[in-house]
């Protein structure tokens, strides 16, 4: 299952023999990758060398009598004991493992076990998924694929935030232009795009009204500030005009309809309050809008091959069930000294004081600066955090996962930390430790500033369409069938976007650069797809039915040995990626395999090689294809027949 582990085992057996000679336990010494010019694996012996003056001769003596199978005799260089592989024996071990396990190659007993619930994407149902949501969705889906590959039981959930004022703005605007909105949808426009435009116009008009009221109140008492606000007002009017370019009829109708409503903010809060109270008419309107946006989400996510086991409505799970209010009641009952009412009448939990008193910083992985947690507004409506706690408890009650992994932007680290503290205060310290905030940084699109409230964003649909267009331009001459060109372009575009979003460590900001996203020479989804197709084509041209019966040549080229080492490391990389929740490790490793394979293929013949090189190289190509296929499956990068 894990060829690399066989090497480590052999190193430790050798260290055990040496330890017996000097009456020490050396088997716990770390085994790591060596500097390439010194070997493959290295063990630090600096402390041993300081205490055992004749360690060199002891190492030589043990090496003389030790039966190496997959390793060569070690060398002591600058305090490190360096081992290199026995190319023939290790190649046989690695290739046999890949060819026999095939789609399961990469799995090992080092993989994590358990039951995971992964909540990801969970975009507010207000507008289309944008490039920021895309990173969330791809990270969450890839984590699920990775843990499932490892044999874990995994559920994926989309937490549908249908409560709160933001949804109310969309509902308020949609209700005023319902007929035109449905006409646009019938004409073929995606429903989430239609609602997104309505939401942006409604929010921007509400801001204009709010600013006009403030300017009017300041005109006599602070004319200088009033003039400053007029500049902001001009930018808001410009935003409405820009939104009008998308659909003049709909926007003009909506702006006119919103005009008579004096205070849109107050009206939105009224809708929020009635929705939480279960008012049937308001519930019907909110569900109508949310379902339209969700339909748009599904269409986009289906293109990305992302599915969910459950779509959990916040209102059902946390509000109508009474769970969110019960969270507040239980906090009053269990930790009354940490619950207070602020000057505005809101109910607040002093998460900061509670964490300080019990010294929970390390236990729950909390940031040192933790603000107070507002639980209920003055009007009695719940906040996202309160509903979030109720949702976490619901997930544990219903599914009892070993871990809940919540893929949520890094900027939400404080609310997510407050959630864990509240769970602890409610008497669930174990559950608090089982909640993982899987934080990720934003995606940067050079020259683009995004604001959902003003409709300023680049949608995932647009990213996919533009990627597909660029791919078509690159490969159109290779296909005579437009249908096949379209199918392949779509698959390459999906692979390009998914790889780009997952290949950078989650806590590093990711810059979306077209030149890198569709680079056919390195470090991209299309590069992996191209390499996979090349390997598959070699095997098809060779007419190979089985590559199990091959012989390893006496001499192997450096690139062949490098490929063997990389293939042998796949189970180790899979296990570490799953344990650390770092799918970017797999993207990096797949890229290294692809680079090394292409270098190998350009230098050495495969089909025209004499035996035993021909058989061995075909087996090596098959092992590469298996590794790429398995890793691409985890990353969600589609494999292709031709490209």
List the helices and strands and how they pair.
Blueprint: H1 3-22, E1 32-33, E2 41-44, H2 46-51, H3 55-65, E3 75-77, E4 80-83, H4 87-101, E5 115-119, H5 131-149, E6 153-160, H6 165-176, H7 178-186, H8 191-218, H9 223-244, H10 248-258, H11 264-277, H12 280-303, E7 310-313, H13 314-319, H14 323-334, E8 339-341, E9 347-349, H15 351-358, E10 373-376, H16 384-399, E11 403-409, H17 413-425, H18 429-434, E12 435-440, E13 443-444, H19 460-475, H20 482-502, E14 510-511, H21 514-517, H22 525-542, H23 558-580, H24 584-603, H25 613-635
Parallel strand pairs: 5-6, 5-11, 6-7, 11-12, 13-14
Antiparallel strand pairs: 1-2, 2-4, 3-4, 8-9, 9-10
Helix pairs in contact: 1-3, 4-23, 6-8, 6-11, 6-12, 8-9, 8-10, 8-12, 14-16, 15-17, 16-17, 19-20, 22-24, 22-25, 23-24, 23-25, 24-25
Poorly predicted spans? none
Number of strands: 14
Portion of residues in beta strands equals 5-15%
How would a textbook summarize the main sheet? 5 strands, parallel
Radius of gyration: 30 Å
Look at the structure and name the CATH superfamily of the largest domain: HUPs
Domain count:
4
The total count of helices amounts to: 25
Task: Please state the overall shape, judged from the principal axes of the Cα atoms.
Answer: globular
The side-by-side strand order for the widest beta sheet comes to 7-6-5-11-12
CATH architect. name of the largest domain: 3-Layer(aba) Sandwich
